[in-house]
Amino acid sequence: MTIYASEITSEQHKADGPIHQRLLKAYYEAIPYVKGDLLEVGCGEGRGVELLAPLAKSYTAVDKIVEIAETIRQKFPETKFLNMNVPPFEGVADASFDTVVSFQVIEHIDQDQSFLREIYRVLRPGGTAVISTPNITLSLTRNPWHVREYTAAEFTALCESIFPSVSAKGITGNEKVWAYYEENKRSVAKYKRLDIFGLEQRLPASILRIPYDILNRFNRNKLQQANEGLVNDIGQEDFFVSDEAEKCFDLFYILKK
Length: 257
Hints:
Elements: H1 17-30, E1 37-41, H2 49-52, E2 58-63, H3 67-75, E3 80-83, E4 97-103, H4 112-122, E5 123-134, H5 152-160, E6 165-173, H6 175-193, H7 199-202, H8 205-226, H9 228-232, E7 239-242, E8 250-256
């Protein structure tokens, strides 16, 4: 996976604003659960390091993208960075962390149950994992960067097969957020009508990624140009956690060992 794909949003792109803020919300909502030694699995560009690291006794980041390691080390010299594909979490000892966070990662993992088992393994007794992943019910199109996406019921069943305590929540938004979602939905539908041969579902993911990235970036820019006020005005404060996970953009689960 390349860090420059449209799959990874950035605050550097104004058109990414609503999606970036939605993903950032998970870090804010994780704050009450962070304590002791913290492991983040799939840290990406380090969106949450500045927010969560000061709350923990220690912060360890895991990601497979080599290019980001130096950036994170320079900005946050107190953090530890492990470069690896997961699962397994090679070199990470059993029961070595009090908190694990992993946002928008499990949908990229082939062995999702093994991934959760590894999180369980490295947590200390009584430890907490906070995980987010897209809710397929509200996905607008197939994402070729994702191995799979889940319904709330599917993700609950997966988590309950490993963790004794599962709290199923979700991240949703206010009227501004839903207005953006509906605009995005209408725009994506126009592109999908052109796919008369159903290539979106039939093409291998590796082939679909390039056109997906191009159209995704074009669509976000178009939405930003058409309604700059709506796109630019959406911040993380416009998102909130709901107990109705099945109606939310992202599933947001708190798992206890």
